[in-house]
Model the fold of this input.
Amino acid sequence: MGESYETLESFLQEQRLFPPSAAFKKDAVATAEIYEKGKDPEAFWESMASELHWFKPWDRVLEWNLPFAKWFINGKINASYNCVDRHIQGPFRDKTAIIWEGEPGEERTLTYSDLYQEVNRFANALKKLGVKKGDRVTIYMPMIPEIVVAMLSCARIGASHSVVFGGFSAEALRGRINDAEAKVLITADGGYRRGKVYPMKQATDEILKDTPTIESVIVVRRVGETLQMAMKEGRDYWYHDVVDAAEDYCEPEQMDAEDMLFLLHSSGTTGKPKGIVHTTGGYLTGVYATFKYIFDYKPEDIFWCTADIGWITGHSYIAYGPLLNGATQVMYEGAPDYPDRGRWWSIIEKHKVSILYTAPTAIRSFMRWGIQWLEKYNLSSLCLLGTVGEPINPEAWIWYYKYVGSERCPIVDTWWQTETGQIIITPLPGITTCKPGSATHPFPGTEAEVVDEQGSPVKPGGSGYLVLTKPWPAMLRTLYKDEKRYIETYWGRFPGKYLTGDGGKLDEDGYFWILGRVDDIIKVAGHRISTIEVESALVDHKAVAESAVIGIPHEIKGEAIAAFVILKEGYEGVPEMQKELAAHVRKEIGPVATPETTIFVGELPKTRSGKIMRRLLRDIATGRALGDISTLSEPGVIKELKQKYESEEKE
Ligand code: 7RM
Done:
C-alpha cells in the first residue's frame, strides 16, 4: 500500500470515536426515540408489522413458550405480495427493483412491474408442475435475477424454498435436497466466475438419481450453447418454456404468519448441516424494519449487498429486505477481481450505488490490492457502508471508512446469524457513535447479554458468551425435522437464553464486541463452515484413517482451514496426497471448504477419554505457547506434531 499506508497508520493512532455527522443526522430515518420505542418490544414490532400488508391482522403479537416463539398469531400474509404487488399499486410501479450486472458485462433492469409479471407466471408454472402449499423447492442457481423470481414464486404459492449456495458441490446439494424432501429443483445451465463458465445442471445430473423426491427440474438458460447437457424428457424443463406457457396472474396464497417461508441449511457443530426454519410474518417484519432503519433507506437509494443469495445475508438483504421496502438494488453475478480489481468500484460508479453492504474479508482483499483501484472511480454516490459475516478488525474498518467512504459515510457493523434471520447487534446511523471493531448495541426491540460460565451477565469490561435474552420476530422457529437438536443447541446451555455460539465482550461504555465463535464453526472468507463437516469429508476418503480440522487466522479470509490427517497403512503423506484430499473435500462440500494446509501426522493429541484436543492443535498452528497438557494421554505426540507443523510451514 506504500505511502497511503503511513497515513493510515497515523489515522489508527487517533483512537477516535465516530459520532454521526450533523449532515447525516439531519435526514436520518431512525431518530433517537426508536430506542425508547424498542423498550416495549411487542408494541415496537407490532408497529413495524403494521407497515406491511396483511390479508388478516393478528390476534396477538407474541406467544412465547420458551423456547418456541410464535409471532403475529393468526395473521395472514404473503411474502411475494408484500415484495411486489404492494409496490405496483402505488408510485413504484415503474421503479427499478433490480439492476443486474452479469460478470461478462451485460446488464438487465427489472422494474417492480416486470418482477410482478415474472413472479406471477413462474408461480403458475410451478403450480402446473404440481407444487402445492407446504411443499419444498430447492433452488441451486448463480446470481441472476431468476433466483429472486424463483424464491418469490415459491412464496407466492405457499411452497418453502430451500436455496443451496451455488458454490457448494453437487454432493452437498444432494444432502440438502434429501433433507428437505424437495419436489422440484430449480437450477441453471451454468454461471460465470472469473471469466469461466461453470456447469450447474450437468453437475446436478450426477446426483439426481439419488434424490427420490425430485419430480421436476427447471433449468434457466444463463450460459447457452457452450454447455452440453442432457434434458431428461418428462423431468427436465427449460425455465423460459414453462414461463412462456403460464398464465399471467397467480392468486397469492394467504399464509399463516407461522407457516414456513423457507428452510436454509447452515453448518452446525456436527457433520450434518442444520435446516434452519424461518416462518413468514415475523421474518418479514424483522427484515423489513432492520433494512429500513439500519441502512437508513430512502426511496432514491441504490442499495448493493455483495453477498450470494445462497447465504442468509442474501435472503434477508437481497431477496426480502430491499424488496419489502420497495428499494432499487444492484445485483452482481461474479467475482470482485474480474476483469480487474476495479470491478466493484466501476459498478458503484456506473449505477451510483449509495449503500454498500459487504464482508470484512472483501475489504481486506481490497486493502491488499491497494487504493489505486478505487482512485480510478467516482464513489461520491456512496452515503452508507455496512459489513457483516465476521469481526472486522479496526484497521479494515478505518480503511473502509477512509478510502471507500471518504470519511463521509457512516459504517454499520452488523452482527447476526442464519438463525437470527435479521440483524441483531448494530449501530444505527445518525444515532450511534461508532468504535471501529464493535458492532455496538442490540437493535431496538431485541436484547443481548454477555454471560459467564454460570449464565450470569458479566460486568462492563468482562467477556464471555454472547446470548440473546428476548425473542425477536425473525428468529428461527426450530430445526427442520429436528426439534430436539433445536432445543439442545440453542437453549440447552443457559436456561431461557439463546446461545449464539459467539464469544463477546461488553466494554466499559456498554458496547458489544464480538470475539468470534466459541464452538467448532469457523468463518472462512465469511462463509460458515463446520470443522467437523470437513473432517467427515476427509475420513470419507479411502486413504484417511483419522483427521482433525481447525480454523487458523488468515490475513484476508479471517480464518482458513488447517487439517491434521492420519493416513491409513500403505498410503504416503506426499504432496499428491494433499492435492487429492483437497479435491475430495471440494467434491464433497465445495471450494470454500478446501484446507489451506494439510499436515500428515502419526497421532493426534487426545485426552485420556479419547477426545481430540483441538485447543492444542490451535496452539501449534498459531505458534502459541502450549496450554495445559496435563490431560493429554500421550504427551510425546505433541512434540512430534509441533515439529511436523513447523517443518511444513518452512516449505
Ligand atoms: C450473517 C451471517 C453467523 C456467524 C456469527 C458470527 C459471525 C456475523 C458478524 C460476525 C462479528 C459481525 N450468518 N458474524 N456477523 N462476527 N461481527 N458483524 O454471517 O450464519 O453465516 O454466520 O458469523 O460468528 O455467529 S452466518
About this structure: The radius of gyration is 24 Å. The first helix runs from residue 3 to 13. Residues 266, 311-313, 388-391, 413-418, 439, 500-502, 514, 516-517, 523, 528 surround 5'-O-(acetylsulfamoyl)adenosine (CB under 6 Å).
